[in-house]
Write a structure and sequence with these properties.
CATH superfamily of the largest domain: Spore Coat Polysaccharide Biosynthesis Protein SpsA, Chain A
CATH topology of the largest domain: Spore Coat Polysaccharide Biosynthesis Protein SpsA, Chain A
Number of helices: 9
Number of strands: 39
Helix content: 10-25%
Distance between the termini: 98 Å
CATH architecture of the largest domain: Alpha-Beta Complex
Number of domains: 2
Strand content: 25-35%
Radius of gyration: 31 Å
Bound molecules: uridine-diphosphate-N-acetylglucosamine, calcium ion
Length: 449
């Protein structure tokens, strides 16, 4: 059995924020969310999160974790003690800090495999870094691991050591509980250090392994918004390169923002300044033009999106949208639809082959196939108090600058004259003209004087 303990009771004061540190986001996923997803992908049986101040925010965001409270912030070892009641004597426990969102499943798996294969009671993870300042140092004697010494407790000889503690550990559950029961706070910070558990176990003749990671990048910790930015850049590079290797062209890797859960098909091209978030799935052979934002949308194959916003909607194949259009939540667009410039669509279905090429608003409408919206059409869905539904059946032609006052139905094949304000249902194949006739006052200008 494998359980995980996430330490997230720190106050995160250096973020200078009303939002808890671990709830800050890289793209649209929280710092803690990345770690939880990694742990879930490793099939750990339980995730125990140790939380302190503002823990309601965390508990609301992740209701399916097990929570242990640390009311006083007395150190990482003290935080781990708070989780001890949730641990059995059997199995293993991964302990990690809640502020390392770049950690990967492969990385934890490698550490855990090393732990199992070595049969260790505890395994820590180290990395060699150029600037070890601030980290716990890995102290060895003739190459053999002895202990971890924190920055504030380090002697000058210890302080120059470049092998640091990354803060990811595997323990046998029983030995972790034993070591926690022996911790003291006899150190520079008067804290209970989790790092002391290694020395305690070695002194009690248990074994400790050190997994030396290839790079420190996966363990990058976030304490400030500058570090949040640095981590975002690393995550951005990882995500964008993953898509590139899967056959997506990203013209500017450093100026394209794709969330971790987005999928994109082969031969799609992403132009600079694009932001794609949430559970978005984009098909093959699409072109996502500059400065588009797409969130929680499903987009088919061969679509062209130019400088537009698409939120929580479903778009068919071979659809063209934009420039400067806004597809608001709950829209379903069929195949071969053309939405041109300055068009807003809200909570509407649009059938195959329908076109709204310019300056149109469509709200709360059920729109059929092969309909042409003339420039400046407005679906008037709101009377100031209530919203109403408009139904437009297949093959309707709507002349420019028409208003469709909801609720109203325009039946199949009908034709609406330009400039009409349609208040009544239009029958099949009818022509509706709803505007004042033109009046001509001949030579009016001449008589004016
Ligand atoms: C810790 C390690 C250090 C390591 C470094 C890696 C200890 C004593 N030191 O130092 O060896 O090199 O991480 O980044 O463990 N936390 C609690 N309750 C507390 C204190 C901390 O839950 O009372 C949580 C924090 O929310 C944070 C994590 O533990 O997620 C680490 O705490 P932090 O104070 O950042 O430890 P470091 O000083 O960075
Ligand atoms: Ca830290």
């Amino acid at each position: 059995m494998l359980k995980a303990v996430l330490l997230a009771a720190g106050e995160g004061t250096r973020m200078k924020s009303k939002t808890h540190k671990v709830l800050h986001k890289i793209f649209d996923k929280t710092i803690l969310g990345y770690e939880i997803d990694v742990l879930k992908s490793l099939n750990v049986s339980e995730i125990i999160a140790v939380v302190g101040s503002c823990s309601e925010q965390i508990q609301d965001t992740f209701p399916d974790l097990i929570y242990a409270m640390q009311n006083e912030r007395l150190g990482t070892g003290h935080a781990a003690m708070m989780a001890a009641d949730h641990l059995d004597d059997e199995g293993d426990v991964i302990v990690l800090y809640g502020d390392i969102p770049l950690i990967t499943a492969e990385c934890i798996k490698a550490i855990y495999d090393y732990h199992k294969e070595g049969g260790y009671h505890v395994t820590m993870t180290s990395a060699i870094v150029e600037n070890p300042y601030g980290y716990g140092r890995v102290i060895r004697e003739n190459g053999t691991f002895k202990k971890i010494v924190e920055q504030k407790d380090a002697s000058p000889e210890e302080a120059i050591v470049k092998e640091i503690n990354t803060g990811v550990y595997c323990y046998k559950a029983k030995e972790l509980k034993y070591a926690l029961s022996k911790l003291d706070n006899n150190n520079a910070q008067k804290e209970y250090y989790l790092t002391d558990t290694l020395e305690i176990l070695l002194k009690a003749k248990y074994s400790a392994g050190v997994f030396v990671a290839d790079s420190a990048e996966d363990f990058y910790g976030i304490n400030t918004r500058v570090q949040l930015f640095e981590a975002t850049k690393i995550m951005q590079k990882r995500i964008n390169e993953k898509h590139m290797l899967n056959g997506v062209t990203i013209i500017d890797r450093d100026n394209t923002y794709i969330g971790p859960d987005v999928t994109i098909g082969e031969d799609t091209i992403i132009y600079p300044g694009v932001l794609i978030e949430g559970n978005t799935a984009i098909g093959k052979d699409c072109e996502i033009g500059v400065n588009s934002r797409i969130k929680d949308a499903v987009i088919g194959n061969e679509c062209t999106i130019q400088s537009s916003i698409i939120l929580n909607s479903q778009i068919g194949n071979h659809v063209s949208i934009g420039p400067f259009s806004h597809i608001r939540p709950d829209c379903v667009l069929g195949d071969n639809v053309k939405i041109g410039d300055f068009v807003e669509i809200k909570k509407s279905t649009i059938g195959d082959g329908t076109k709204a090429a310019h300056l149109t608003y469509i709200g709360d409408a059920e729109v059929g196939k092969n309909i042409n919206f003339g420039c400046g059409t407005v679906v008037v869905n709101y009377d100031g108090k209530h919203k109403y539904k408009t139904i437009i059946k297949d093959n309707v032609f709507i002349g420019c600058n028409s208003n469709l006052l909801s609720p109203v139905t325009v039946n199949e094949g009908a034709y609406i004259a330009a400039g009409s304000t349609i208040t009544d249902d239009v029958p099949n194949n009818a022509l509706a003209i709803a505007r004042a006739r033109q009046v001509l006052k001949l030579d009016w200008k001449l008589k004016e004087k």
